[in-house]
Structure formats: C-alpha cells, structure tokens
TrEMBL record:
UniProt keyword Nuclease present: yes
Reactions it catalyzes: 2'-deoxyribonucleotide-(2'-deoxyribose 5'-phosphate)-2'-deoxyribonucleotide-DNA = a 3'-end 2'-deoxyribonucleotide-(2,3-dehydro-2,3-deoxyribose 5'-phosphate)-DNA + a 5'-end 5'-phospho-2'-deoxyribonucleoside-DNA + H(+)
EC number: 4.2.99.18
The protein's name in its UniProt record: Endonuclease III
Gene name linked to the record: nth
GO terms (BP aspect): base-excision repair, AP site formation
Organism: Kocuria palustris PEL
Length: 320
C-alpha cells in the first residue's frame, strides 16, 4: 500500500534516511560486509520498490507537481550525499588562479591528465604574469600530454594576460567578470566560484546534464537553461555540492550507455529506472572508480577524509 507523502515543509529535505530496511548499511546480501560487491554505505533499493514507482508514474501519466518535484529532487540529493560524502572538485588546486587554469585545460581531456600536468606548470610559472610572459613553445611542450596543446597554450596565456591587464593579476570573484575572460564560460566560472570562492554555483557538464534529465528535473539541453531550472529546485547553498554529487554518480553508477540501475541508491526516486540493467548482480559489475570491487582500500581512504593528493601519494590510481 502506498504511503502518503509527508506533510513536512517541502522546502526542507525530509528528516532521516529515505531508505527501507534492505538499505541499512552493510545489511543487504549485496553489501560487502555480507560478501557482495556493493560498498556497505551505499543504499540498495528493493527492485520491486523501484519497479513499482516506475510503473505507478507510467500508469497515472500525470505530470509531477512542482511541490512533488522539488521534494523528490531534494531526497535524491540527500541520498547522493550519503553515497558520496567525499565528493569534491576532482581538479587539484591551491588558489583560484590554479583552479581557473586547470579547468580551462581540462577541455577534451581527463582530470587525471590535468592533475599530472599542472604541478610542473605552476612550479615553472606560479602566477598570471609569469605564464603570460613565457615562451609559447615552452608552454606548448609542457601541455603536450593534454592534447590540443598549441590551442591550450594559446588559451592559457591569453587568459593570463587578461587577468594581468584587467584585474591586476587577481582572479575575479564575480560571475559577470569571470565570463568576460577569454575562454571562460558559465561552467568554468561556476567551478571557480563554487570551489575557490565558496560562492554557490551549478556546474552543468555532460554528467550533470544527463542526470538532471534522467531524474526528470529538466527537459532542457541548453546548459544555461538546465542550470536555471535545476537551481530553482534547491537552496543556493546546496548548488556546489549537488554539482559534485551528480558528476560522481554519473561516473560511478549512472553511466551514459549502461547505467547500473540495479544498484543505484536512488532507483526508487528516478523516473528513468530501467535504462540499464536492473538485475542487481549484473548492475554491480558496472560499478566504477572507488566503487569497483577490488578498490576497497581507495574507498576507505576517501571515507576517512584523505585528499586525492594523499591517495595518489599512497600509490592509488584514481581513474576508472
């Protein structure tokens, strides 16, 4: 029998866990404590419950009310917060300048490659003036591992020159100023604002947009429209963490081609349940990064609060 919706203030996340008994940490047969492949802290949803939710939505055919959408969106964010309590920006940085450059360089490559390249870059040219005045060929050679190294060297130096000329060598902390810099769009600006200045922002990358549409939070493809529609469902102070959580979930479980629906912690809250394998054993084989069986030590490091740099120094590979 369907339980009535709670009557609590819909502007606030529901109190307490959303999970049922089978989702208790380490209590499901698929949890690692029981000999299974799924991390103990990850909620596992009863497939019958997930199927019932999807069937109910399909049967009624009614559009979700704005109130119900907001409530469901916040429950999803709450559960993803439990699944990824360590979710942060995956680019290494020690200053707004370093994060801005790293984000610009991350286009069409991986964060892992950027993180392997930027330490030497910033050691050689630690500030905008130094990079702006560097020999182009030397910058190109340092950026060669990232691909498109000539255009990236040109972009990085143009950005450095603009910051030196227009902002006295300091990265501005306002969206309207950041997006005027060469090569900086709203996505890059929001990454910098949210992670280097603690100014709330939603970062709409490929993962965020895909998951926002799968969750039914928006039907838009345009990143700016996605940002605005999703932003309206949450308090601004949640925007940056939400951005990290959707990226983490998109990389580890909700994959583009074969989402691991059977072991998704928000399966019963997702209108797209069933796009990928729903059989739990099969879905568990799709877990990636630190969720992948055999990488328990890496996950333990994250859960203990160790930084990505510390984990790399300890010999852990952080790629998929």
């Amino acid at each position: 029998m369907t339980q009535p919706e709670p009557t609590a203030d819909p502007a606030q996340p529901s109190a307490g866990p959303v999970s049922d008994l089978s989702a208790e940490h380490g209590q499901h047969p698929l949890h690692r404590r029981q000999g299974g492949p799924v991390p103990d802290h990850v909620r596992i949803v009863d497939p019958a419950k997930a199927r019932a939710g999807a069937a109910r939505r399909a049967r009624t055919g009614r559009a979700e009310t704005p109130l119900a959408l907001k409530r469901r969106a916040r429950r999803i964010n709450q559960e993803l917060g439990r699944a990824y309590p360590y979710a942060v920006a995956e680019l290494d940085f020690d200053s707004p300048w370093q994060l801005l450059v790293a984000t610009v360089l991350s286009a069409q490559t991986t964060d892992v490659r950027v993180n392997a390249t930027t330490p030497a870059l910033f050691e050689r040219w630690p500030d905008p003036r130094g990079l702006a005045e560097a020999e182009r060929t030397e910058v190109e050679e340092m950026l060669r591992p990232l691909g498109f190294y000539r255009s990236k060297a040109r972009s990085a130096q143009g950005l450095a020159q603009a910051i030196e000329d227009e902002h006295d060598g300091q990265v501005p902390g306002r969206l309207e100023d950041l997006v005027k810099l060469p090569g900086v769009g709203r996505k890059t600006a929001n990454v910098v604002l949210g992670n280097a200045f603690d100014v709330p922002g939603i970062t709409v990358d490929t993962h965020f947009g895909r998951l926002a549409r799968r969750f039914g939070w928006t039907g838009q493809e345009d990143p700016v429209k996605v940002e605005h529609e999703v932003g309206a469902l949450f308090e601004p102070e949640d925007w940056t963490d939400l951005s990290h959580r959707l990226v983490y979930h998109g990389r580890r479980i909700c994959h583009a081609k074969r989402p691991a629906c059977g072991v998704c912690p928000v399966a019963d809250l997702c209108p797209s349940y069933g796009l990928g394998p729903v059989e739990q054993e099969a879905a568990a084989q799709l877990l990636a990064y630190e969720f992948k069986p055999g990488r328990e030590d890496l996950l333990a490091g994250y859960m203990e609060g160790r930084t990505r740099r510390e984990l790399r120094a300890a010999g852990h590979g952080l790629s998929a």
